[in-house]
C-alpha cells in the first residue's frame, strides 16, 4: 500500500484512528462495516522504496495499516460485535500462525506476528476465546516483547496474572465469564 493522504483508503484509515482517540462510540456500526470488508489483502509484499525493499523484516500484508487502525479503534471501544470480524482476520493464513520458538523464523515474520498479536488482543477484549487462546500461545514465543505483551493483555482482560504458565492461563480463561 502506498501512503497517499489524498486517497479514500488513507482518509478512512486516518478517520478510524482519530475517532478511536476521540472516544466516539457512535460510529461502531461503521467500523464494523469496514471490518467486515477488510482482509489481509494477500501475502506479504516488499516495500517499494529502495531502503525498505531490501529489509525482509518490513514486508507487510497489503492491508496491514488498515487492520492496525481498526484494531486501534476496537481495543479502545471493545464490543462483542467486533469479535467475529477479528476472528475472521485471525483465520487468514497471511496473518495467523506466526508464533515461533524457532530463531530462524523470527526476521521475516516479525511485523505479521505483531499484527496477529494485536488482533488477538483486540478480539480478546471483545470476548473472543480464540483471541485469548492466541495470546496464550504467544506466552511461549521467542520474542520477549510478544511474551510480555501477551501476559499484560491477558492479565488486563482476565483480571488475574498467571505469569507465563500457559495451562494456568487456559484454566483462568475457561473459568472467566466473557459475556
Textual characterization of the structure:
The protein is an all-alpha fold and 179 residues long. Helices cover 56% and strands 0% of the residues. The protein has 9 helices and no strands. The protein has helices at residues 8-22, 28-37, 50-53, 64-76, 83-90, 110-125, 129-138, 144-158, 166-175. The N and C termini lie far apart (37 Å). The model has no long low-confidence stretch (mean pLDDT 90).
How would you sum up this structure in a few lines?
The chain is an all-alpha fold and 179 residues long.
Write out key terms for the chains shown.
single chain, 179 residues, mainly alpha
Q: Low-confidence parts lasting 5 or more residues at pLDDT below 50? A: none
Number of strands: 0
Order of helices and strands: HHHHHHHHH
The residue-averaged pLDDT reads: 90
Structural class: mainly alpha
CA-to-CA gap between the ends? 37 Å
Biggest β-sheet description: none
| Amount of beta strand | under 5%
Q: Count the helices. How many? A: 9
Give the topology, please:
Elements: H1 8-22, H2 28-37, H3 50-53, H4 64-76, H5 83-90, H6 110-125, H7 129-138, H8 144-158, H9 166-175
Helix pairs in contact: 1-4, 4-6, 5-6, 6-7, 6-8, 7-8, 7-9
